[in-house]
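Observation: inputs received (chain + magnesium ion).
Thought: call the complex predictor directly.
Action: predict_structure
Action Input:
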Amino acid sequence: MTLRLDTEVLTLHTRHPFIIARGGQSEYRTVMVRITDRDGLEGWGEAAATRFYGETLDTVQAALATYAPHLGDDPMQLEVIERALESALHGNAAARAAISMALHDLVGKRLGVPVWQLWGLDRAAAPQSTFTIGIDTPAMLRQKVAEASEYPILKIKLGSANDLELLQTIRTATPKELRVDANCGWTPSHAVRMLPVLEEFGVTVLEQPVAPADLDGLAHIRRHARIPLIADESCVTAADIPALVGRVDGINIKLAKCGSLREALRMIAVARTHGMMVMVGCMIESSLGITGAASVTPLVDIVDLDGAALLRDDPFIGATIAGGQLALPDAPGLGVTRR
Ligand code: MG
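Observation:
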């Protein structure tokens, strides 16, 4: 009997509208994927589509319908299945990532071990997670900083017209470590002008200041930077890493970009081979998708898995980032349960 794939649309709401350089919203819809084997065991995954990477709720559902007949009957054949999906329909990373999560969850459940343990990882090695403060008015920024009191490291979204005011407001509100993500919102020369400002405000990491294809711009900024420069939108899969060597200090992996847990592991291996830092991030998604991404955190330097912590109606219980400390579940597979 072939593995059965079912889907369910999840409607999620952030506590506050989540605004980055490209805009924002407060309602998000993701797709939960359930894969059932012949014994009735279920593996779960989540697809968080983003238009920026060419996916929507509709394309995810269409892609999942295309992928369903290619799952075969043996969930242990992870490599074979993932390759079959890619050749059936390339791209559609969020949809494939959901299947990858569900298959790993199912395999872990069949074997009775958590995914992080299946990979031989020490979950205590996971770094602290940042908590993101989206673009907002000064009054709302102060409120958000107050609400984030339990998180020791904040990630600030810049790339709007009020970057300086925003930095000032947050720095006045808290002495915490700050990291900045400009989400492609700057030019290389503007980014270079911003570097001493970031330094003055004690910012420790700069993520994706310029457009995804502007690798020379990244290299130009890195020559002037004293803080690590991380590529996010410029680094989608492992194949993007060689061109980034020497141009950035590290890469940001997201399952919804790279399409699978196995590709995330390959990206970590390739980046480490080149002596690069590794970060793992997320979209706005529930604790189901966050737990999938959290499985690789013992292998990375920077964790930004606040997608579910930003929600007011998370339907799942899984990996948590309470107090900033990432905690991976004990239970077999991804260890995620319904709230
Ligand atoms: Mg980013």
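Thought: report the result.
Final Answer: The CA atoms of residues 91 and 259 lie 8 Å apart. The first helix runs from residue 57 to 67.
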